[in-house]
Amino acid sequence: MSLRISYELDEKDLKHFQLIMKEARKAAKRLPPEDIVAAAEGLLQDVSAVDAPGFIVERLNKLRLMINMLSDLEWRLPHQEASRVLNALAYFAEPEDLIPDSIPGLGFLDDAIMIELVVRELKHEIDAYEDFCDYRHRLRERGSNATASRGGWLDERRKSLQSRMRRRRKDRPGLLR
Asked: How many whole angstroms separate alpha carbon 53 and alpha carbon 47?
């Protein structure tokens, strides 16, 4: 048997989480990027050691994706985007949680909420990275010896968009035909 519980964060709740994130980012400025990433990795290890609820695990998969975005040498995240991702991970470098992680079933709820909020903030970066990972997977499936790169991915995206424009143009009568 499963039970579905929904909750809605209103503006006051969101401001509370934004304030917490702002404080975490301020504190994280004193930390090297490796420590911020290590803290996020630590959270993933802590959760894997317990039987966390599915909704928590789902969000933590996005946390893993953000960490991978920073460390993926083929993706080579530009400095400004890397800073945004590190800022998103700053909360996990804070030793104090809103809800202590030791509380069964709910201990990681605040972490899951924060992940959900930063995933929304980084939606475009995450979507692009997931698309790049698909591109890299397709290259490997084809048996290509080419190394996946951000530039190669962008070239493929450009060609795909141009091809789609040509198809659409061909299918619609217009003044310029």
From this structure: 10
Q: Are 14 and 80 within 8 A, CB to CB?
A: no
Nearest to 114 by CA among 92, 145, 134: 92
Length of the chain: 177
| Torsion angle of the four alpha carbons 136, 142, 147, 152, in this order, in degrees rounded to the nearest 10 | -60
Number of H helices, E strands in the chain: 7, 0
Q: Say how far residue 176 (Cα) sits from the centre of its chain.
A: 43
Taking residue 21's Cβ as centre, other Cβ atoms within 10 Å add up to 20
Spatial distance between the Cα atoms of 121 and 172, rounded to a whole number of angstroms: 37
- 78/83 Cα distance (integer angstroms): 9
- The predicted pLDDT at position 49 comes to 84
Q: What is the pLDDT of residues 98-151, one digit of tens each?
A: 776 677 667 778 888 889 899 999 999 999 999 999 999 988 888 877 788 888
Rounded to whole angstroms, how far apart are CA atoms 85 and 74? Answer: 17
Instruction: Round to whole Å and give the CA distance between 156 and 176.
Output: 27
Are 99 and 83 in contact by the 8 Å Cβ rule? The answer is no
pLDDT > 60? residue 13? yes
Helix (H) or strand (E) holding 157: helix 150-171
Selection from 25, 40, 27 nearest residue 108 by Cα = 40
